[in-house]
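Minutes, project check-in

Agenda point 3 was the complex the collaborators sent over. CS summarized: two entities, 1140 residues total, and the question is how they sit relative to each other. Sequences were read into the notes so everyone works from the same version.
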Amino acid sequence: MELQFEWDQVTAFVRQPDGSLFSWFERFRCFHHLLYRIVNRAEADLTLKFDGKEIQLQINESLLKRFEDEGIVKQVFPLHDEKKRKQLLKNWALNWFDFTSQPVDEIYLYYGTKIATYFSFLGMYTRWLFFPAALGLALQLIDFGSMQLVVLPAFFIFIISWAVFFIQFWKRKNSTLLARWGINCSLSEYKALDTERSSSNRVHADHEKNFDANKPIEKKILQRDEWLGLLLRIRNNTIVALAIICLQLPFELAYAHLYEITESYILKLLLTAVYLLAIQYYTQIGGKMSVILIKYENNQGEESSAASLVYKVFGLYFMQSYIGLFYHALLHRNLTTLREVLIQRLIVSQVLENLIENAYPYLKYSYKKYKAVHKKKHEKGSSVGKTIRLATRVEKEYLKPSYTACIGKELEDGLFDDYLELALQFGMIMMFACAFPLVFCFAIVNNITEIRTDALKLLVMLQRPVPRTSATIGAWLNIFQFLIVTAICTNCVLLVCLYDQEGKWRIEPGLAAILIMEHVLLLIKFGFSHFVPEEPAWVKANRVRNVVQARDMYSKQLLRSISNLEMKRN
Amino acid sequence: MELQFEWDQVTAFVRQPDGSLFSWFERFRCFHHLLYRIVNRAEADLTLKFDGKEIQLQINESLLKRFEDEGIVKQVFPLHDEKKRKQLLKNWALNWFDFTSQPVDEIYLYYGTKIATYFSFLGMYTRWLFFPAALGLALQLIDFGSMQLVVLPAFFIFIISWAVFFIQFWKRKNSTLLARWGINCSLSEYKALDTERSSSNRVHADHEKNFDANKPIEKKILQRDEWLGLLLRIRNNTIVALAIICLQLPFELAYAHLYEITESYILKLLLTAVYLLAIQYYTQIGGKMSVILIKYENNQGEESSAASLVYKVFGLYFMQSYIGLFYHALLHRNLTTLREVLIQRLIVSQVLENLIENAYPYLKYSYKKYKAVHKKKHEKGSSVGKTIRLATRVEKEYLKPSYTACIGKELEDGLFDDYLELALQFGMIMMFACAFPLVFCFAIVNNITEIRTDALKLLVMLQRPVPRTSATIGAWLNIFQFLIVTAICTNCVLLVCLYDQEGKWRIEPGLAAILIMEHVLLLIKFGFSHFVPEEPAWVKANRVRNVVQARDMYSKQLLRSISNLEMKRN
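CS then shared the predicted structure for the full assembly.
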């Protein structure tokens, strides 16, 4: 039931951590609504003049929207709050001594739930990494002598248990965060709510058309839609999988093979450079393709499209990041190359990536600024001299790049890239833990710098991002869980490789086939439920409709009884 | 917000399938409440006389409760509705030609959600069984020649996919049932609601004591309670597991071994009889022990205790039912004995069980009736002759046994036994599918008779059970899913046994150890999340409290504004 907000009922609301009444997301939405609600309320069309152009504003047309269409208003974006930004810069981005702890509440207040969730996940992940890192370091330094045979499996079991605990405790932490931010529902309810919100809108629309899922015809339509959607999703996933297997896999294997047989160091470096360039291109095209494919799926709401996209793009990057490692580890049992490549990936590319991540926006900004100043100078003529600067803060911030994902800005913001980076790192350290226990230490160093560079990027380099509601890590959680299961299998194979250096262990082809079949079936068992939803679409539509109807009826009745009382009073 | 039910607002309610306003459960609760609300409203204690006894009824004491304590009222139970019972008997229990389809709505109206859910699950399960049964029969009859090697793995893959589909589609069916019965929430919400209902009561109690989970002390108490509860649960599960492994396992193995080496058929039969007697005793004691252990866990609400009990008792029966089969199949690779035992279990014991299930209550009833008649005869003296009968229907139904579980009636009703039987059968047919594909046919025959005998038992033999709210199959779903995963592993081992009759396949001890480790880790990965809940207890308490508080505040404010209006009116 929706009631108007009245100032004297203010005590009924839960306050934000800083004492204000509305969150940054809510305020942003209000501003947005206010700005776009400036419409032509006159009886006739209005004619506006600007820069010699004449603009005809129709009745009830939004002024700002028109200006945007005409190109007079170039962008609507939230500005940085200089005072808070400086404070955050001091407390957070430049506070190098708090290795993993961050002022999450302040981040939430400044950036909204989604970014705060990312940083608190990153912080917790890094904090938890200290355990395996310490153990990995111990394994590397101490010589266990005859116990060496038992130590590695023990480490493996520890790592998997650690990961399982970590994921579960992250869920608990996420629940705590929800409670802290005044979101009054449990984690699973929150997820359900997300998808419901969008379908509720649809139902509202259906409701007006007198759509009733109880009728057999409408039920049939909904059922058909659901299965059609499923088929579309399967088709798209097949396309992506085929593209990965038929196009990417041979390329990756070719690179790994060439790397394996090349002996000169310079050639290797050259090869890697060429490979990186090519694969960058391929994954970008793949990402764009995925975005296009997503549009042809009728996903239930934005959240589900985002998840579908995450799975597809992760598939691409999974192949890119790990297939070479698998090649070295499993096919050639070449653990030295594996370690080499792991170090290279974790240190060199991540340092480079962090540098690029920060330098690229800065360079872009500088170039834009230079161009803008140049243009202004040109306009005002050269007579005024060299003292021309960008006058306002707004102009400066407009020139800064916005926080967007590499795969386009429609569905996701820049957090997509950051989560992707994190998931790939997690996969790397988990799947090859047994081959190189030191890998966890590199990951820690990486993540501690990652926290600060990401913070700096957000605070200094980019426009203030538009706040988003999502307060969980969404589909990435499933990806992390999938990586744990994969890690169990790969580490087992690695252990076999390690203990069987001479290749004496024989495995009958029949037994191998049965083992592979077992793993495929386990995958089916645990993967299938992600495909077919628990609740048929028509039941869901019905349920949401019932809720809406009950609410409507209830509030109508209440209002009627109140107005009855008022009528009697008069 | 709770409002009084008013007759003129009746259109706002969703009707039951038969057009009545309240479900059988709601009506039962109302009757119950009305009966027990007859209290002494006088200013002083009342003295009642009955059969020469004097009973002092204190102020505000419930009359019926007192009568129950004194033994005047022996039992309060719902009576059968003769008209509807006869109709159901005709449409359902004796309608042998509708093999698996049942009048679910009528069952729901007569018995409530829980029993209707059981029967619709049983019906769907039996219906789905036709696919693998047909395939299993084909496998048995047709000679595939050289293709035989490929046929069995294909059958295995089909069976697992079938089971996975079945479970997912059961969830969908359950959602549909919820919608049909006017329960307006999704399956996962429904589960959450179940646990919430009980904790909400606790919070209400806490609320009165001014308990606030925001305060650090109370938060600490709740956190301590949660971890203590977890430790208690782990301790109890360890006790059960140890009892199973140390007491039951040797016994079971001894029986299986003796069965294996005994050659005389009569000795085998004798052995089985002794074994069945002993194991019956053991499982009953185990069940009772589990119920006692449960009481020392601080489970959140009844639903969670019931689940905990289900897991423990199933552990006992799992060992009892399958370990012998494993012994024959894996250790001795003796597939003929395995098949023999399977047939024996599925046909002989299930037929016997069905007979006992129905005959035992009938005999009990007859005996009780005989005794009651005898007693009456005795009381009235032998002069009246032999025409004494039980006068009223109430007396007759009182003598019928009630619908209780074998492990005691506190937590579960008779459905526990029925679900247990079903789960054990499912495990049997899934886990040994590859050794004996015909097993599915036996299961179908079994289930078709099971539907009718269970219906007969409920309609004819027993008292009408007290309706229960639960509208899902609860923890049994997890058991079914666990059985599917186990089936994947056992069938793989069976396939190895089948294809490697000569025992030529060698597996290195190192490789075997790694494989076992892998499976244990996979079990940890998929089992752990059942142990630690996603949401910390204090967050949950806080959330529920917030909801309660908001509701209270909201309704108070509303009432205040209405009364303000009324005051102004006067």
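Noted in discussion: The mean pLDDT of chain A is 81.
Follow-up: revisit at the next meeting once the mutant set is ready.
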